[in-house]
Design brief:
The protein is mostly helical and 52 residues long. The chain is built from 2 helices and no strands. The longest helix has 28 residues. The two termini are 19 Å apart.
């Protein structure tokens, strides 16, 4: 549950940064963080489901 909240917060931050023309390097970092967090979350969910 905490991971889902963290991903939602990152998505909200990315929306604000993209909406209000922020630094492009900062935007790339946030997008990379979102994709990384989402992929880690998906991998963890798949591993826990397969182990059951």
């Amino acid at each position: 549950m905490i991971r889902i909240l963290a991903i939602l917060v990152l998505i909200a931050v990315a929306y604000v940064l993209i909406r209000y023309d922020s630094n492009e390097r900062l935007r790339k970092g946030v997008v990379t963080g979102i994709l990384g967090a989402l992929s880690v979350y998906i991998v963890i969910v798949v591993i826990t489901e397969l182990s059951h």
